[in-house]
# Entry
Amino acid sequence: METVLQVRMDKNIKEKVEKLYRDMGITFASAVRLFARQSLVEQRMPFVVSKKPVLAGGMLSKYADKSKWIEEDGAFERGILEEYERM
# Structure
């Protein structure tokens, strides 16, 4: 059984996030469903909520192997989608 979720948000944010997810090959609605599924898998929000966020990529980028960036691009999203499809 499915249900409908309605969320109010700024029109500009919605348009930008829809484009972002479209560029990733998924819809905004699919991203929301992935967020909910991943929350259940991890039993928490699937990202860190912080007043002062620190991005590991920024801190560790000087150690990164730039030749791997192309094959790593989208790896996280693919992994989440694979996990979602197994459920």
